[in-house]
């Protein structure tokens, strides 16, 4: 096993960024053509040949960088029972519905965890060419090449909030009451794009029912910024566990948790 | 009064596009600095110095092009009682909340109407640099320099729909039932950006409580494409009248109207 220190992770980060810039072109070439689209669990849960092709593309690249790390990826059978050691978490196309219907507001996400703790996270807004990367392993968050500062610790009342459409419609966990306290709800349809908005201070939080690959990268980046991430039932994040995940500024997180409990 | 024929309108269109490209730089220069923000009707209804400054900038330019036309603009006292003759309808920054909080997903909108009928419409997604322009007066819609085709006449079940957050939360006009038939809701917070998505075939429709400057440009462009636009109570569009406005593909429009009535 390699020595996973900060210098090693900085070098790894540079290689992953280099890969993702090329991966963007890979996606562009595929998305110009007719897409083969299949339904997964239901008609709102889609997968395309680009999800599958890009996942294989990403796994090939990451496996060369850290051959011994486990892999947890959206478009694979996932039967990992523990998070010990190094683990890649991969969402080749987050927001597949947007990818298929809108050709925007989708993201590529990669995270590296060690013993269940985040080291590195990557969220790439492919169409806007905004790549947030970094994590606790290197102690910073970059927007493309630039180190960025944490967002202001705004209160619930001071900005917008991102929500999943079904949670808003169904008033799940009283999130309609939460929404009324904010300056308004936005429903974008991609966890990656929503995490970017929170990390850049464009909204005070985001909540949705998420799988590990939906939140792993955002959780890594949020940790650097002191943003709070957890399940709305109060449990701490477990990178193998799906659930309703909330990310928010410290002030908004407390306020939201006192409403939803 | 000038002869408002197609040749004249094509020349006018070229001049307005030329102006809007410069206007984008005008906005960029202003938005980099600290914004002076005021509340209008309530804390979710904002106006900034850029809304006011850009409105003055637009009115100055348009008044030179057609000195006799009336003006209906968001950030002015509006007491027009009839739509006779030529009239500009202007929204200097549509989606001011997004402009203030997110610095994206806002639009500049301009429309030219004659005797209440649309001639030209302009929706400029400033951050993505996507300008949709055209209208019944010239019989085409351009995306920047390119003539574009109408979107496919998709059914409600075949794509996403754009909604206002409050309408979704409050199940206004049974729009939660509408949402369940679609592939999902998106809440973007700018009528201009939502109209662009409908015009480009990225969603089957959009509904929100709108003022004339929110729908005038989109209505002009939708008319070229055979998209349906109307108030959800069944009335035809009146460019002086605010209301809950629906734009959708023909198929989706019929399906939605049978649910909301």
Brief synopsis:
Two copies of one chain form a homodimer. Chain A has helices at residues 6-31, 49-65, 96-101, 165-170, 175-181, 191-199, 212-225, 250-260; strands spanning 37-39, 46-48, 70-73, 86-94, 107-114, 117-125, 130-135, 140-143, 146-147, 161-163, 185-186, 205-210, 228-231, 243-248. With 261 residues, the first copy, chain A, is of the alpha+beta class.
Q: How would you describe what is shown here?
A:
Chains A, B: InterPro entries: Inositol_monoP_metal-BS, Inositol_monophosphatase-like. Chains A, B: This is Inositol monophosphatase family protein. The structure is a homodimer of 261-residue chains. Chain A is α+β, with helices and mostly antiparallel strands and 261 residues long. Chain A has 2 domains: 6-147, Fructose-1,6-Bisphosphatase, Chain A, domain 1 (2-Layer Sandwich); 156-260, D-Maltodextrin-Binding Protein, domain 2 (3-Layer(aba) Sandwich), CATH 3.40.190.80. In chain A, 37% of the residues lie in helices and 26% in strands. Chain A has 8 helices and 14 strands. Chain A has a 7-stranded mixed beta sheet, with helices on both faces. The first copy, chain A, has a 5-stranded mixed beta sheet with strand order 11-10-12-14-13. In chain A, a hairpin with a 4-residue loop joins strand 7 and strand 8 (140-143). Chain A is globular, with a radius of gyration of 17 Å. Chain A starts with 5 loop residues before the first helix and ends with a helix. Chain A binds chain B through residues 43-44, 97, 101-104, 157, 159-160, 165, 168-169, 176, 179-180, 183-189, 197, 202-203, and chain B through 43-44, 97, 101-104, 157, 159-160, 165, 168-169, 176, 179-180, 183-189, 197, 202-203.
